[in-house]
Amino acid sequence: MANSSSSRSGSAPSPARYGFSDVTRAEEQLRRAGWWSETGPADSEAIVVALSRCPDPDLALHSVDRLREAAEAEWAEIARGLAEDVGLRGRLFGVLGTSTTFADHLVAHPEHWRRLRSGDDVPGTLDDFTDELLRAVHAEGGSGEAGTADGPVAAVRGAEAVSALRAAYRGVLLDIAGRDMAGIVEPSMPAVECEDTAAVLSDVAVAALRAALAVAVAELKSSGVDELPRLSVIAMGKCGGHELNYVSDVDVVFVADSEADIQNATRLASLMMRTAGESFFEVDAALRPEGKQGALVRTLDGHLSYYRRWARTWEFQALLKARPVAGDAELGERYLHAVQPLVWTAAEREDFVADVRSMRRRVENHVPVDLSERELKLGRGGLRDVEFAVQLLQMVHGRSDESLRSPSTLDALRALGEGGYVARTDAADLVDSYRFLRTVEHRLQLRRLRRTHLFPAFDDSEALHVLARSVGLRSSGRNTAGQALVAEFRRHANRVRRLHEKLFYRPLLEAVAKVPTEALRLTTSAASERLAALGYLSPQGALRHIEALTSGVSRRASIQGTLLPMLLDLLARTPDPDGGLLAYRKVSEALAETPWYLRLLRDEGVVAERLAQLLGTSKLVPELLIRAPEVLRLLSDTRALAERDPDEAATSLRSAVSRYTEPQRAVSAARSLRRHEILRIACGDLLGLMQPTDVFRALSSIWAAVLESALDVSVRDVARRSGEDVPARIAVIGMGRLGGAELGYGSDADVMFVCEPVEGAEESAAIRFATTVVEQVRRLLGAPSQDPPLEVDIDLRPEGRQGALVRTLDSYLAYYRRWSEAWESQALLRARAVAGDRDLGERFCRAVDPIRYPEGGLDDAKVREIRRIKARVDSERLPRGADPATHTKLGRGGLADVEWTLQLLQLRHGHEHPQLRTPSTVDGLRAAVRAGLLDAGDADELVEAWTLAMRVRNAVMLVRGKPGDQLPKQLRELSAVAAALGYPAGVDAGEVVDDYLRVTRHARSVVERVFYES
């Protein structure tokens, strides 16, 4: 039972003060070592303090006591060294306070304490380790590599060789562990990074393989074999990548020079594996062709034949870390030179990315559920998450970038960050977390030199406390360090998993993997031919754009070099690859200083795919994108892009603009927000994510919000400049497509303004004030701009262009009751309050109901008048040269045909069928069916034609970047319109025309029957 310090008599310090749990035993052991007296540590306090810093002070002191007994004759020298040599103190206590196995080793081989004395603080080289292990078996002969004809041959074999090698190997590991742990015990000692330790451990493993091979050669020769086979040992896995653990299998592949060598080479390989397994570690050859079922040794041609014909994706992934380490060096280099091209073209294999991802999932699924949270290596957020993500990125992008072809996970990760394939912060975070997890893994394995990757149970406070101290986490309380370690472990595991999923499941990988390897590194002439084959009409022009985007050595150019092969393929699938690439260049140059732009394209593959589709289809999108780049971020979020409530967007715009008092700034802000919304809607529309009616409604809503904002700031500004209170209420009445909430991208806003004096104000003053406000609104919104126009059209007001800009409600009613014509009643059918004083607007609409829905309907004369007007519009307003069959507005079966047909029904029957009283064309047609005024089939024909004409009109605006009512005749434009309408890639553009003509022809037949009654 451990004694507490409170149980001790007197005032002398207790060992408990220095972190020892078993106080009585600790004091006895300290006394025996000469480091404790009745008054405490005396002149040995530095030693006791160093012991207190050990991960497990009790284990360290107990192991020192055992060493004292085992090395009794040398104890005085050891004690003097510990007192005088900080390096020895840090290394010896660091090892003994961490590892029971190394304590056992030092007790069995006490002379090895000398390995830990200060001297050369640089770890040994591969040659140093090889020489030491070969000396252990008295290897003699030649200057060649072990396992070659002129290489060293061990003088001892069997159990004697195994015993000698095991002791020598443990001695070398002791030296490495001492350097690794010294900084924990003595802060003045240099800290050692886990990757440096892993690299040295890998060198020791290679030296061990060479020594085992020397013993195997001796055994083979003793069996009567005089001529050695040419055999090369290829390290794979962590040994191949210079990132081995303290305890791990060493993965290898064996290569023989010829078929004649196979038999003896197999015997030699088997002997080497047995010797290494008994002396150092298991040698695992399961990564060879056909795995454990395959031949242990194959010739180089045998390996290549298998890899070219039968190998699976994971086998190429394993070859990433292949390097020759023992045996015939020249044969090993030939092997490496032959298999490397296969590794760097494996990403072209069908379903390559999916195969790698599937392998990771299988590995993860093999982890027992109850251990998955603590599994450092294979679990979620573990080492394999980092390694799989890095290897997948290497194999996809390393085809064209040799800087990524490192077998080391951390070196490759840093290269991916430097090359722009991974965000610098993501790369740095993964490096940090990988180091932490590897350090914890090393410390866990040091305890008993056993292969383990399992983090201690979260309720095992003792194990957690020791492990926490071994990685440098300190605390005043015994449980606190362990809790801090658990928190740190979870933080790193969560970060690794998050970044793994971000990188490993990046859609960009699949897109880049589909680009042939040769296309990633083409000569100019070959690139020109490939671009032409992809469908670029001007390959030389495309090459100039590519050169402009990728020239130089900047990180931006590097990321562009990564993106462009994939983007070129994506753009090639669009109607206008050349225009799309030019637009991409313009956008990239405009956003060159936007730090997240290229990161977004690289990290969010769906953004790159969608952007290519947009740029290769539309001229409007890139124009808007340069001035509203923030919309790019929405391309990765379908819901934010296409499902935003129009009312919410309008409210947000009005709220943002209301903060401004200066009219120009307010309207500028409104324009900016409208630009953002139009671009968002256009992207959702072109990508097929929004229904047509949602597009029309969203465009109308944002237009109304701009009107509202301009009106509000103008009212405040005019009132401020006049120095008087606002004398009038003003309402904006939407007419035409704005009233029907059916605006397109290039539509004007047809409106009328109505006002009334506030209480106590003169009507004349109210009208003057409202007129000034309206003039300012029109001036502000009509100012030249690069955005789609903001034209406020008030020609539908009483008396047209000659009439007053603003009237009172009574004035409007007086005019309509006395002077209005049939067309004005027709125009009022789409009147809807859209901005300004809501109550006044609603009263206006109710007041004009008798005008637009006349009691008793229309008499025959007015019906004939409307039909005459329609016929005149058809004949006179169609632009010269326009094709009436494909003109969306005034052509046969187009918008005007459908709208006039409905409006005639509304004028004639709206007074008796309230459901007809809607400004919406589609809603009105459906209401006419319910009222029994229109056959359901006829309504469907009209709705289909009207919707198609609206969509074509919008598509033309998106494709050309300017309004147009005519279906294009030029093939590339027509193909782009087809893509904008959602036709599949490669469809014959003539099919679009045929579909339009068929739909509008059917609609025209309905119009002739219903509107003209012919």
Using brief descriptors, characterize the structure shown:
five-stranded mixed beta sheet; mainly alpha; disordered N terminus; 1014 residues; EC 2.7.7.89; GlnE_rpt_dom; transferase; elongated; Four Helix Bundle (Hemerythrin (Met), subunit A); NT_sf; PII_UdlTrfase/GS_AdlTrfase; 10 strands
Task: Characterise the protein shown here.
- The chain has 1014 residues and is mainly alpha-helical.
- Among the domains are: 351-513, Four Helix Bundle (Hemerythrin (Met), subunit A) (Up-down Bundle); 856-1010, Up-down Bundle (Four Helix Bundle (Hemerythrin (Met), subunit A)).
- It contains 45 helices and ten strands.
- Strands 1, 2, 3, 4 and 5 form a five-stranded mixed sheet that branches. Strands 6, 7, 8, 9 and 10 form a five-stranded mixed sheet that branches.
- Helix 11 (262-279) links the parallel strand 2 and strand 3.
- Helix 1 packs parallel to helix 3 and helix 26 runs parallel beside helix 29.
- The radius of gyration is 41 Å and the shape is elongated.
- The N and C termini lie far apart (110 Å).
- 50% of the residues are buried.
